[in-house]
Amino acid sequence: MIDDTLSPAVRKFVRLRKCGWEATLAPLLIGVLLMTAGCSHEEPSGAEAAEGEKVVNVAVSKVVRADLSQGLRIAAEFRPFQEINVYAKVPGYVKQIYVDVGDRVKKGQTLAVLEVPELQDELNQAAASERQSEQEVGQARHELKRAEADHTVAHLTCQRLEGVMKTRPGLLAQQDVDDAQGKDQAAEARVEAAKAGLAGTQEHLYAATANRERVQALFDYTRIRAPFDGVVTARYADTGAMLAAGTSSEQQALPLVKLSQNAFLRLDIPVPETDVPSVRLGKKVSLEVQALNKSFEGTVARFADKVDSGTRTMMTEVDVPNPNLEIVPGMYAYVSFPIMEKKNALAVPIQAVSRQGNKAVAYRVNSDNRIEFLPVTIGIETRSQIEVLSGLSEGDRVVVGNTSQLWPGQIVAPKIVELSEVDGGN
Questions:
Q1: Could you tell me which residue, 344 or 71, shows the higher pLDDT?
Q2: Are 323 and 297 in contact (CB under 8 A)?
Q3: pLDDT tens-place string over residues 66-97
Q4: Residue 238: how many CB atoms within 10 A of its CB?
Q5: Cα torsion at 163, 164, 167, 172 (round to 10°)?
Q6: Contact predicate 92/109, CB 8 Å
Q7: Which residue from 8, 267, 346, 376 has the fewest beta carbons nearer than 10 Å?
């Protein structure tokens, strides 16, 4: 009797064996048994497969809202706001010089004194001429007063005689009246002459005063003064050196010093033609000075308002305050010129977006910590962040850094990193 607990295939094999067919059908039956056993094998569960998969650690950053500003980054060289060679106005020998290279000076401060003896003599002569003219004016005033007094007496005498002649016609001779009238007119003419003489002496005084002031002004130029606050960057003359007048056409005219106004600096920025419409007076720009490892702020102060036909750029000047003189003219700065701004935009670190031709993709870590490969549409880009127009949502976790070893569906162990950490890894 065949045990009912056996499988149907085994019971059939037992019957055939009893019938003597085992030698013929044994191989066939063994194959059927093996196939049956293979079909009865169960697949491992998803959890069992996950246990055998290697988990990769990845750095991720969250999609956040941020204010973004896209700018033009250009290297430019600082130059002084003003820089001049200080020349002598009058020729002379350097009697004393008070400054040297590196000295900081104030506006009006004396830099050097020139010795010009002949100019001192000319000044004394001009002053003497002025005093003489003043005396002549005083004398002319006295002459005018005397002439006016004589005229007053002659005029009163003439009026009295004319009055007597009218009231008592026969008392005075007509000749006496005529003589009085003549003296009155003569006295009046002398008054006019005295006035003209006074005016002439006053004109001489004005000329003498102007000449004295001219010579005095030239003499004042023997003290060479700083025209503005600045730093002496070069010194060309020493005590005893002969300086020619800066107005001279001689090529050998030697300056005293070179003076730079460094408390305020300029940056010349060639803005490309496509970005010219974004240039506005008063716009703030960010400056990175790598030599100082510091950042500063400047202001667009002026621009050419004309695109250069050769370079297709418009020269734009940025003013940079430098009150502590820590920036030295000649240093280079990287200028971040703002072109486009977006407020409250979805942003991710630049390292979170991979570009494949004209397309951009991001690797998102879903709630199951599995990698998702997502195409994204990007907007403006800054040095550290990039705007996401579509493809991601606020709060999504995206992989930053190397994604070459990742594939969709892969399980990872995400670690949130700050944006500063991402930047530092560049």
A1: 344
A2: no
A3: 988 777 888 999 999 999 999 998 899 999 99
A4: 9
A5: -140
A6: no
A7: 8
Spatial contact of 79 and 208, defined as CB atoms under 8 Å apart: no
Of residues 98 and 180, more confidence is placed in 98
For the residues of 331-390, what is the DSSP string, one character each? -EEEEEEEEEEEEEEEEEEGGGEEEETTEEEEEEE-TTSBEEEEEEEEEEE-SSEEEEEE
Dihedral Cα 363, 368, 369, 371, nearest 10 deg: -30
Residue 234 phi, psi dihedral angles, 5° rounding: -160, 150
Reading the block at residue 158, the tokens are 């003439």
CB-based contacts of 114, cutoff 8 Å, min separation 6: 88, 90, 92, 93, 94, 95, 221, 222, 223, 224, 243
In angstroms, the CA 137 to CA 202 distance is 6
Q: Which CATH class is domain 72-77+259-341?
A: mainly beta
Give SS3 for 229: coil
Fold type of domain 56-66+343-424:
2.40.420
Find out whether 378 and 336 touch, Cβ atoms under 8 Å: no
Token pair 């020729």 in the structure block, residue: 91
- Equal fold, 56-66+343-424 vs 72-77+259-341: no
Stretch 162-186: mean pLDDT: 82
Q: How far is CA 374 from CA 309, 352, 365, in A?
A: 44, 11, 10
Kind plus residue range of the DSSP H or E element containing 266: strand 257-272
Domain spans of the chain? 8-39, 56-66+343-424, 72-77+259-341, 88-110+225-255, 118-220
| Average of per-residue pLDDT values in the chain | 83
pLDDT for 19 equals 46
Higher pLDDT: 303 or 420? It is 303
283, 267, 375, 304: which is closest to 69 by C-alpha? Answer: 283
User: Residue 239's pLDDT is what?
Assistant: 93
What's the burial of 323, exposed, middle or buried (CB within 10 Å: 0-12/13-18/19+)? exposed
Contact 269, 337 (CB under 8 A): yes
Closest CA to 419 of 401, 393, 394: 401
pTM over cut 0.85: no
Nearest-CA neighbor of 347 among 313, 316, 388? Answer: 388
Q: Which among 351, 350, 365 is positioned nearest to 396, based on CA atoms?
A: 365
C-beta pairs of 185-188 under 8 Å, 24+ apart in sequence: 186/154, 187/147, 187/150, 187/151, 187/152, 187/153, 187/154, 187/155, 188/151, 188/154, 188/155
Q: Cα 228 from chain centroid?
A: 20
Place of tokens 């944006």: 419
